[in-house]
Design a protein that fits this description.
By secondary structure, the protein is α/β, with parallel strands linked by helices. The chain has 25 helices and eleven strands. The strands form three sheets. The protein has a five-stranded mixed beta sheet with strand order 3-5-4-6-7. A hairpin with a 2-residue loop joins strand 1 and strand 2 (about 10-15).
Length: about 425
């Protein structure tokens, strides 16, 4: 709710800006110890206090106090936040930085003129069918052997669009996402009845991974429900400061999945899972959906989390050849969902996989949703450190669980002629259970 109480600073009473939809106590939770700064990737890039979590909290508090104008000296620093939330895991005071960042992103969106790249993304990313239509020319270019020419021409496009095209992953067949039925029966005895989010980006660009996830679940006794009308979870909209669209998409997903009386709602994208887990907060002021959102969020399980608890059964001599792998923890998986041991436990049980830890496995890769399109220089600087840590392991493949990380890591390794493959954990798990169809 909006804050209207008068706060006192330095003996002078000030009235917080009531346009900030955040309790003022969120600012006071920060004790300015600075422990967060060593975990912030953007502070590591330039060493500027204003580009650290502590600095951003101080700036937003000054806006709330009426001492600073958001558009003059604050907006640029809020826009430069990756939203990795590593600061929250480091904070000894339990500061909910994400709520402050959420308000900052909303204010930034309202005060900015939408760029061409932002308008394109917002008109397509939240709707799998619209996204499919938007990339149809790229599919034809790929079939005609012109994909590389399209990528070279990307530099002439408006800021953001070129970066988006350069990072775009290889496109699977358009028909593949439509091959997943709405209900997949459990193999053998039914152990659980689950729903699964296919999402927007995952549905279009990573449909083989969605199919692999379904097969792993069904092969381990899960009846899997995948309603066609589910669409986007709203994570990308919320990340872009469009809380209205994010809430609308959340309501739709709740309406589609909650009535199915599921044991769990399984998600194979860490970014989506973290957003869905936070539906209770996103819809807290909606009298019709507030309680539904809390119930829905309680059912959301990351695929690794769910499969570890199930538990998934692996053959002693699976078809996976001997590989040396390392694991990259997606920010939302490590810092929001609190997952670390679960994916590693699954991989260690896969015959033929030798897991080697990289340094700082939970540090951001620099993708950050739309951040890498809007701030490519900073994103690539952060990526360089991550790639160095990956190559130092000597791994054949790097495994993760988020489409943004998959895209950014794969693009970075390919650009540097590194022959290290990047795989989603669901693909590795399915290959260990049976040879893909």
């Amino acid at each position: 709710m909006a804050v209207e109480t008068v706060k006192r600073r330095g003996g002078k009473a000030t009235k917080p800006n009531v346009s900030l939809n955040i309790p003022y106590d969120r600012f006071l939770d920060c004790v300015h110890c600075g422990l967060c700064m060593g975990y912030c990737p953007t502070y590591a890039v330039n060493g500027v206090e204003a580009d650290s979590p502590r600095g951003r909290i101080h700036l937003m508090r000054a806006v709330a106090d009426g001492r600073l104008n958001f558009e003059q000296g604050v907006k640029e620093h809020m826009d430069l936040c990756l939203g990795c939330l590593a600061c929250e895991t480091a904070c000894p005071s339990g500061v909910r930085y994400r709520e402050i960042l959420e308000v900052g992103r909303e204010m930034s969106r309202k005060s900015s003129r939408r760029t061409a790249s932002q308008r394109v993304m917002e008109s397509t990313l939240y709707d799998p069918d619209a996204l499919e239509r938007a990339i149809a020319p790229l599919r034809w270019a790929s079939r005609l052997g012109l994909a590389s020419a399209v990528r070279k021409a990307a530099s002439k496009l408006p800021a953001g669009l070129g970066e988006m095209l350069e990072l775009m992953p290889e496109l699977p067949p358009a028909s593949l996402r439509r091959q997943i039925p709405e209900v997949v029966d459990a193999v053998g005895t039914t152990r659980a009845r689950v729903g699964m989010l296919t999402g927007c980006v995952m549905s279009v660009f990573f449909s083989p991974t969605n199919l692999a996830t379904v097969k792993v679940l069904a092969g381990n006794g899960c009846e899997v429900h995948i309603p066609k009308e589910q669409g986007c979870c709203g994570a990308l909209a919320a990340h872009a400061g469009d809380s209205y669209t994010g809430a609308e998409l959340a309501r739709r997903l709740i309406d589609v999945l909650l009535p199915l009386n599921l044991d769990a709602i399984v998600v194979n994208s860490a970014g989506c899972g973290s957003a869905m887990k936070d539906y209770g907060h996103a819809l807290r002021d909606d009298p019709e959906y507030a309680s539904k959102a809390i119930e829905f969020a309680s059912l959301v399980k990351d695929a690794s989390e769910f499969l570890t608890a199930l538990p998934v059964q692996f053959p002693k001599d699976g078809p996976v050849r001997s590989i040396r792998a390392t694991y990259h923890d997606a920010c939302q998986s490590a810092n929001v969902l609190g997952l670390h041991d679960e994916p590693r436990e699954l991989l260690r049980r896969v015959a033929g996989v030798e897991l080697t830890e990289m340094a700082d496995s939970a540090v951001c890769c620099g993708f950050g949703g739309t951040f890498s399109f809007e701030h490519p220089d900073v994103a690539n600087f952060v990526l360089e450190t991550k790639l160095a840590n990956i190559t130092a392991t000597g791994a054949d493949i790097v495994i993760t669980d988020n489409p943004g990380c998959l895209t950014h890591l794969r693009g970075g390794l390919d650009a540097r002629n590194q022959r290290i493959k990047v795989r989603h954990i669901a693909d590795v798990l399915w290959e260990s259970l049976a040879a893909p169809d």
